[in-house]
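At this stage, I needed to go through a protein sequence along with its fold in token form, as given directly below:
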Amino acid sequence: MAVGAVSMATDNGIISGTATVTQPVTGVDSTFSEALNSSVTQSRGNADLDTIFEAAGRKYDIPPNLLKAVAKVESNLRPNVTSTAGAMGIMQLMPGTARGLGVTDAFDPEQNIMGGAKYLRQMLDRFDGDLRLALGAYNAGPGAVAKHGGVPSFSQNYVSKVLGFLDGGDITAGTVSYNGFDAFDQKGAVPESFNFGEALAQMIFAKLIEMQMNSSNDDNNRIF
């Protein structure tokens, strides 16, 4: 089953209400912590999911309702969830898959949906437009589909659920609130977008300032 072709997308106006907040870092002295926190941000805001799905569908030549159906089964359209296996966000991208797709913040709905759409397009291309096989590969991986010569038994219920949502008519995704990445996630992982070099430079500079202030009464010990 092949999917139809449509035109390219524009991404204007998809994400709104973003803000920057610092995340606490523990285990270092207050001066270092403040310097490190200043370089660690988290994006928060509201996302119009229907607009994002439309844009992703146009960009990757996939019906937006199919993408929404996948997202309904994957996360029920929730942007801030993580599965027990580590899959993240609306389209439930695994960390390695997200990196390979160029997604730097899997909890940003736009990045996540665009990444999921790109991956589904890869699976559709790999399996010659066969939707069932592509969905099985999205769920279990293309290697599992190739190994089993079709949709693995453990993915058949997944495929049926997606097709059931797809056959149920147009899906409205709505608007959701989301949080972007934390400096350190629950497993202690650090997002790719975290700039250690910048953080270290700020930490060193803060320490030098602290040393300067402590030695301000002794001209022979001045750093500057």
